[in-house]
Amino acid sequence: MNDTQIRILELLSLDVRLSAKKMARQLGIASRNVEANIKKLKQKGILIRHGSPQNGYWEIIGLR
């Protein structure tokens, strides 16, 4: 995992309903960068999205 992915997980551990745009603002990076890292976390089986993009939430399911 890279530093950005770790920081994303830290933010989501505080608020599972954060959007990529809000995470990007807090991290000071582009939202596309956050989205790409979220995709990698999902592929690794660490992060799952439940529900719709507007009303859903993230679940951190494990670190490998």
Characterization of this structure:
The model has no long low-confidence stretch (mean pLDDT 93). The chain is 52% helix and 12% strand. A hairpin with a 6-residue loop joins strand 1 (47-50) and strand 2. The protein has three helices and two strands; from the N terminus they run H-H-H-E-E. It starts with a helix and ends with a strand. The chain has helices at 3-14, 20-27, 31-43; strands at 47-50, 57-60. Helix 2 (20-27) packs across helix 3. Strands 1-2 form a two-stranded antiparallel ribbon. The radius of gyration is 11 Å and the shape is globular. It is an alpha+beta fold and 64 residues long.
Which characteristics define this entry?
64 residues; alpha+beta; two-stranded antiparallel ribbon; 2 strands; globular
- Gap from first CA to last CA: 9 Å
Number of strands: 2
* SS field, number of helical segments: 3
Assembly of the depicted chains: single chain
The residue-averaged pLDDT reads: 93
Largest sheet descriptor? 2 strands, antiparallel
> What is the rounded Rg?
11 Å
Give the strand content.
5-15%
In helices, the fraction of residues equals 40-55%
**Overall 3D geometry?**
globular
Q: Strand-and-helix sequence, N→C?
A: HHHEE
Q: Structural class of the helix and strand makeup?
A: alpha+beta
Instruction: List segments where confidence is low: pLDDT < 50 over at least 5 consecutive residues.
Output: none
Which strand order does the major sheet show?
1-2
Q: Would you summarize the structure shown here?
A:
This protein has helices at 3-14, 20-27, 31-43, and strands at 47-50, 57-60. It is α+β, with helices and mostly antiparallel strands. The longest helix is centred in the middle third of the chain and has 13 residues, at 31-43.
